[in-house]
Amino acid sequence: MEFVTGVKKKETLELSELLEEGRIGTEVKVNGAIHTIRDMGTIAFIILRKREGLVQCVYEEDISKFDLKDVKEADTVEVTGVLVESAKAPNGIEIRLGELKILSEPAEPMPLPIAKWKLNTSLEAKLNYRPISLRNIRERAKFRIQEGIVRGFRDFLYKEGFTEIHTPKIGAKSAEGGANLFRLEYFHRPAILQQSPQFYKQMMVGVFDRVFETAPVFRAEKHNTKRHLNEYTSLDFEMGYIDGFEDIMAMETGFLQYTMELLKKEYARELQILNIEVPKTDNIPAVRFDEIKRLVSEKYDRKIKNPFDLEPEEETLISRYAKEEWDADFVFVTHYPSKKRPFYAMDDPEDPTYTLSFDLLFRGMEITTGGQRIHDYHELLAKMEKRGMTDEGMEQYLSAFKHGMPPHGGLGIGMERLTMKMMNEDNVRETILFPRDLSRLEP
Amino acid sequence: MEFVTGVKKKETLELSELLEEGRIGTEVKVNGAIHTIRDMGTIAFIILRKREGLVQCVYEEDISKFDLKDVKEADTVEVTGVLVESAKAPNGIEIRLGELKILSEPAEPMPLPIAKWKLNTSLEAKLNYRPISLRNIRERAKFRIQEGIVRGFRDFLYKEGFTEIHTPKIGAKSAEGGANLFRLEYFHRPAILQQSPQFYKQMMVGVFDRVFETAPVFRAEKHNTKRHLNEYTSLDFEMGYIDGFEDIMAMETGFLQYTMELLKKEYARELQILNIEVPKTDNIPAVRFDEIKRLVSEKYDRKIKNPFDLEPEEETLISRYAKEEWDADFVFVTHYPSKKRPFYAMDDPEDPTYTLSFDLLFRGMEITTGGQRIHDYHELLAKMEKRGMTDEGMEQYLSAFKHGMPPHGGLGIGMERLTMKMMNEDNVRETILFPRDLSRLEP
């Protein structure tokens, strides 16, 4: 028997430790994967890939105590050597190699040139070799930024008094949803995968006042577009005691402001690798659905085809308008038509053909849908009846309202879409580790 | 068009703001749900439930400017009044009510006495009325502690250089797993729900060195016990460049140490509500599987029935032994027999019938399985062949190894089980918001 007492400092150093003051001129021990080797004859540059970035090591025939021929790309190694300054090396440092120990070896050479700065490979090839293509420095940096977005969402909401919840993804069939649900058998009973934590987060507003969840959602939509995924991560929150849906937009703006600062502070390296400037979030315009439709139609001389919904092209034009007129990357579109919103959306008492709801557009794409919900039991029943819905599978949801719910509202943010637009990608598959779409079920 | 500029401070105060210095004697505005009303004739105590706790309000016939008859339990309200000290009230304060505005009303009275301190109701009834039973102060406190556990997991791992990942839950059928998988149809192709992010997190070690995920997993096990769920949240991490599986146990110990401090600091209120003392985590004993089996068998005079696995009763005895002999709530059991571990577990070179793996037991129950994994491609293929496995559906997983993987290992922690044992509950359904088991698919 031995006691485990916690994490012990290792002898091997990470990149940020190599960059600490006082390291230059000392012997250091470092591990990593061999990203690339440039053999110049009597010397060679061996670049190690570490989680924080690249470290240049120099092999010198007279000094290094190993045979360069024994080393190849994709080996993982542990090296020792003297740390020196080097203006041309990544981060301005390099290691003059003494010893090198091989920890593991690949069985075959790389199928993709991952050591290139830009992986000029088709999206298809990148996805077919996902565990390999992500080893490219720029590819993996995208997912560090994505981490920062989710982390910012949670940290901001903790600070604002929200409680994190974990709700089930397998559920019973209900009167809501329908065609877009994946179906499965659950111990001889029909079940579905949840397309949103909507009902659960609303029920939990009655318990914790403010809740959030960051979890997968499942949509069996047969869309094969650059913006749709059949499984994605949804950043959801729901909050009680609101004065109006404006409180939800204010909270989302607060999240964006907090997160952009977090990215600048904690993910500066990755922002630089991807050459990204964070968008402005201090003033986000909010404009009515019917008004912006009219404004865009006038300015860009485009006929309004569907007065009840936004077409993708219209979303692009609204963002263009917001950029041109208000210098804004984000724009809230408010008061969506009631017939296009789910039954639980609160209708505008001033004109019930519209709802107290909004979408947030970011650089031409909807990344959020949110709004105020109906909180009165009888009102909710009446709206369900008006839509010809039964309460099948919704008994528990309705019971929360039957026994009292505060005025509340919330939203859902598509994590991959927000990441995609942050880095100006044009396909959402670029910003999900392992996409699920009509044709992709693997890896 | 208007600009949204972020979160604005509301006039209404939260509990922690009421407790700030200088508030006593001032008029305050507060909202909340009416948890309970005690009518004493000319005065009445109206207790508000807020997210941070209970606030006592006093109705006085002569002073309060509303009719007590208009107010009932489960109304949500906004009140104004003078804040005064009151030794007997929760948190030592109460509000002498002036005005009261009703924000929403229930349609029916409560089906459960949620205002009682201990909800003396069967687990069955609590689960049948889940959105209501969780409004009980003690019930909801459990899930605040659960939030702290997950938050501690993430914050500790960020600090240790891990990257958070989001991996797909729908996947193709593979040679691993089998009977315990939920099956579904994915656009006319057979698919499964992932029982673990194992393959994905290993692949991502080749990219980020250290990764974690906190997400649902799905197990179609037909166990109907107090410790099994068919959907639960798994706290997973995987790390590269380890010297041995001891590094994994050290990291888990570090997580537990960090999290217990976080709970004491940020969740003290909930620890107090539930009367919980956090377990000691400074020294966690680690003992070999075969050795602890023998020790327990000798000390408690119990015959070893199955030398390859631990029965639930044995887990209880091992924890009892650890408590009696080492004053430990947690105990690592190491070197599990190879035949009981999955193919990717690394066998102990000194005796390949055992593996370089471990379970962590906490107060009589396994809450973690972890260990070192095979990182060499040929070794992995050989072990699969030995077990008669094909590489069907595992081509991408294997390709990560083919193209080089560092020595690595990791673990998975059952969030609900860890929460359950923290609060000395005896059924895991007590510590999940909406359990999924053989009979429960709703709410």
From TrEMBL, chains A, B:
L-aspartate binds at E176, R219, T369, R373. It is found in: Cytoplasm. One of its GO terms (cellular component) is cytosol. GO terms for biological process: aspartyl-tRNA aminoacylation. Keywords: Aminoacyl-tRNA synthetase, ATP-binding, Cytoplasm, Ligase, Nucleotide-binding, Protein biosynthesis. It is an enzyme of class 6 (ligase). NCBIfam families: aspS_nondisc, PRK05159.1. Homodimer. Belongs to the class-II aminoacyl-tRNA synthetase family. Type 2 subfamily. This is Aspartate--tRNA(Asp/Asn) ligase. It comes from Mediterraneibacter faecis.
